[in-house]
UniProtKB/TrEMBL annotation:
GO MF term list: ATP binding; carbohydrate binding; protein serine/threonine kinase activity; protein tyrosine kinase activity
Phylogenetic classification of the source organism: Eukaryota, Viridiplantae, Streptophyta, Embryophyta, Tracheophyta
Protein name: non-specific serine/threonine protein kinase
Pfam families the record matches: Lectin_legB, PK_Tyr_Ser-Thr
Keyword 4Fe-4S: no
Length: 464
């Protein structure tokens, strides 16, 4: 009898020592955790694994090692844990790498990368049996190299980010219907992870915090963890955000070795920061901004098109020969201040004449707008205009050039401050020309016409 007691005593001590590991945190204010990387505890008691710092990892561990195996037969004990988490991203389409509940031989996992592998592994040790790591990943990214099933899944990882089993995020209602959930929703969710050391089965269950624990687990893995874990291990959380700004939170955590973890007091859990404001920004603010940008782009494009049409000109290939005598419509528009009535010098049967000042040269000009609908004979007409523009005479108003638009021809002259001859002849001027002066004008025109034609210059009179 005594020998049996001696044999059973170490087993009893082992069991009792393992059962002593039992903790519950309804928030983490004043809690002693081993924090690594950018992990921190906020003023209201949230465990914040990552924040708005890029390419970083955050890890948090229960500070003391836990006995996970029976010292007599080296078999893994049963354990149970539950926690509440939430993931918030500045942009739901650009998100961090998720959260992993991990059982590891050391605290900190210094070899874990901050931009991949959930901070657990690196490209060298991923998949090594010597890692002795068991993790449950909550993964919002589909990584083909790890054979992820989608970009919203839960998986059980054994020494590698290539999950031993995985499934889409959700839970089974009492009716057996599967209810889909989204990891990055800013909505707190609760996870239960339970390992049966007798049946050698690991169950993972997930549900929103306003739904009780479902009857059916989300996924199960039949695997003896004894060869994988060491006698003493650390338990905690790991997360990385890579190049994207993502907040990974743990709101509460409960753990028990060889028994069922205590239920969290959900009403006592800390609140997420600015949840409503951030949600409004994403659901209302972002669409409004995008719509506004589209409207601004449309308005800008419309303005540019209208502006191009406003200053559009009619240019044909043959007009290249007359380039130096052609004015841009935009320059004439600006010179005459938009052809406003205040700049109107006069009008007649062939069009209106406006006063203007060229912006670059500051030369005063007179612009006559003449309507033309037919293109027939236009080439000859323009050629004659250019030829007249080459003539220089004291009694002729210099023709500087022209501009063509659809249905409109613009002739550009030097501006005569005293007006043209026709005003003194027909428009009841303040100063009337005497018959002697009128006769001199007629003689001058006749003499000049004779001189031009004698020298072989073809002078045509164009009615405008």
């Amino acid at each position: 009898m005594f020998s049996k007691l001696v044999i059973l005593l170490p087993l009893l001590i082992s069991v009792v020592s393992s059962q002593d590991t039992n903790f519950i945190y309804n928030g983490f204010r004043s809690v002693n955790l081993s924090l690594h990387g950018i992990a921190t505890i906020t003023s209201n008691g949230l465990l914040e694994l990552t924040n708005d710092t890029k390419q970083q990892k955050g890890q948090a561990f229960y500070p003391t090692p836990i006995s996970f195996k029976n010292s007599l037969n080296d078999s893994a004990f049963s354990f149970s844990t539950t926690f509440v988490f939430a993931i918030a991203s500045r942009n739901p389409t650009l998100k961090g790498h998720g959260i992993a509940l991990m059982i590891s031989p050391t605290r900190g996992l210094p070899g874990g990368l901050p931009n991949q592998y959930l901070g657990l592994f690196n490209e060298t040790n991923n998949g090594n049996a010597t890692n002795h790591v068991v993790a449950v990943e909550l993964d919002p990214i589909q990584s083909p190299e790890f054979k992820d099933i989608n970009d919203n899944h839960v998986g059980v990882d054994i020494n590698s980010l290539e999950s031993a089993t995985s499934t889409s995020v959700g839970y089974y209602a009492d009716s057996g219907a599967f209810m889909n959930l989204t990891l990055i929703s800013e909505n707190p969710m609760q996870v239960w992870v339970e390992y049966d050391g007798v049946k050698k089965q690991l169950n993972v269950t997930l549900a929103p915090i306003d739904v009780g624990k479902p009857k059916f687990p989300l996924l199960s893995l039949s695997r003896d963890l004894s060869p994988i874990i060491n006698k003493t291990m650390y338990v905690g959380f790991s997360s990385t955000n890579g190049p994207f700004l993502t907040f990974h939170y743990i709101l509460g955590w409960s753990f028990k070795m060889n028994g069922k973890a205590q239920e969290l007091a959900l009403s006592q859990l800390p609140k997420l920061p600015r949840g409503k404001e951030r949600s409004k920004l994403l659901t209302i603010g972002l669409p409004v901004i995008l719509v506004s940008l589209v409207l601004v782009a449309i308005s800008g494009a419309t303005y540019i098109i209208k502006r191009k049409r406003k200053f559009a000109e009619l240019v044909e290939d043959w007009e290249v020969d007359y380039g130096p005598h052609r004015f841009k419509y935009k320059d004439l528009y600006i010179a005459t201040k938009g052809f406003r009535d205040k700049e109107l010098l006069g009008s007649g049967g062939f069009g209106k004449v406006y006063k203007g000042v060229l912006t670059t040269s500051k030369i005063e000009i007179a612009v006559k707008k003449v309507s033309h609908e037919s293109r027939q004979g236009m080439r000859e007409f323009v050629a004659e205009i250019v030829r007249i523009g080459q003539l220089r005479h004291r009694n002729l108003v210099p023709l500087l050039g022209y501009c063509r638009r659809k249905g409109e021809l613009l002739l550009v002259y030097d501006y005569m401050s005293n007006g043209s001859l026709d005003k003194y002849l027909f428009d009841q001027p303040r100063v009337t020309l005497s018959w002697s002066q009128r006769f001199k004008v007629i003689k001058g025109v006749d003499r000049d016409y004779f001189i031009y034609t004698k020298d072989g210059i073809r002078l045509s009179f164009i009615e405008t």
